[in-house]
Structure formats: C-alpha cells, structure tokens
Design a protein that fits this description.
The chain has 158 residues and is α+β, with helices and mostly antiparallel strands. The chain has two domains: 45 residues, no CATH class; 89 residues, Immunoglobulin-like. Helix content is 23%, strand content 34%. The protein has two helices and nine strands, in the order H-H-E-E-E-E-E-E-E-E-E. The strands form two sheets. Strands 3-9-8-5-6 form a five-stranded mixed beta sheet, with no helix packed on it. Strands 2-1-4-7 form a four-stranded mixed beta sheet, with no helix packed on it. A hairpin with a 2-residue loop joins strand 1 and strand 2. Helix 1 crosses helix 2. The longest helix is centred in the N-terminal third of the chain and has 21 residues.
C-alpha cells in the first residue's frame, strides 16, 4: 500500500514535470520517479550519525569546557563501550565538536549537554570547541581515543 502511494505521488510529479511531452510512455514515469528519488536517497545515506544505544551507559565521563581548555583534553574509551558524555561549561557558551564521531553539541552555562554514543571504531578522534568563545578559542582542543579490544586469542599484557 505504501509503495502504491509513493508511486502515485511520483507519477503526479512526473506529470507536472513532463509538460513538454504530448504523450508519456508507461516506462517513462518509472524512470522519472527513479531519477527524482535518487538525490533524496543519496542525501539520506550521506547523513552519517554516530550509532547510539538504548539502556544505561556502561561508561559515564564528565567533561568541563572553560576558557581556554577542555578538561580532560584526552579521553580514552574501550571499543564497544556505551558512552555517556556529560559536558558542562564553567564560564560562557561553548560547543563540543568531534567531527569523526558526528558530534557537535552546544554547551550552555548551567545546562550540561548529555551526549550518548556507541564507541564502535577504534581510532583517535580530535575534538574542539565549535562556538567562538573568545581570544583563546583555538586552544580548546583535545582527543577522544577509542582503544581496540584485545583479540580473543591474544593474551592481555597484564
């Protein structure tokens, strides 16, 4: 039923766009519908979001943003952790951005931002303040490091 509604909607759009044709062939409407849908489908797949989870986190980390620092500036997280970042500011509005994890949250005084994500892919993810906050803004940098889990057959070095 939903497919029929979508097809009918594309057919109406096709008829509206196909005003130059005197007679449309049956296959033309389907081709036009596919061409019209392609950019929208690509846009949906291009929006990358960091995976999240339901239920309680197994790792809660507090981050303080203040002129001109992010404390701590290096955060180590084990792979596959259900992470909750509680980000607060000691002074003015800041923004926590971690582009590699698709995180960009404003942080306002008196209103901590809570960011939840699933740490899937090991690596070093640079973070920075994303809201211009003054002269030392460019110094507000750090990194989130997602540490790979040891292979199941490898002995841990402990």
């Amino acid at each position: 039923m939903i497919g029929f509604r979508i097809s009918a909607a594309f057919a109406r759009v096709h008829r509206g766009l196909c005003f130059l044709h005197t007679k449309c062939q049956a296959g033309t409407a389907a081709k036009c519908a596919a061409l019209l849908a392609a950019p929208f489908l690509l846009a949906l797949t291009a929006c990358s979001r960091t995976p999240t989870y339901s239920g309680p986190p197994n790792l809660v980390l507090h981050i303080l943003m203040k002129k001109w620092a992010i404390v701590p500036n290096r955060i180590e997280i084990p792979q596959n952790a259900h992470v909750e970042l509680v980000v607060s500011t000691a002074d003015v509005e800041h923004g926590l951005a971690v582009p590699g994890l698709a995180i960009n949250e404003p942080v306002q005084p008196g209103k901590p931002a809570v960011i939840r994500f699933l740490a899937l892919k090991p690596g070093v993810y640079p973070m920075h303040c994303s809201i211009l906050c003054g002269r030392g803004h460019d110094q507000m940098i750090g990194a989130i490091v997602i540490e790979p889990n040891p292979a199941p057959n490898q002995p841990s070095g402990r």
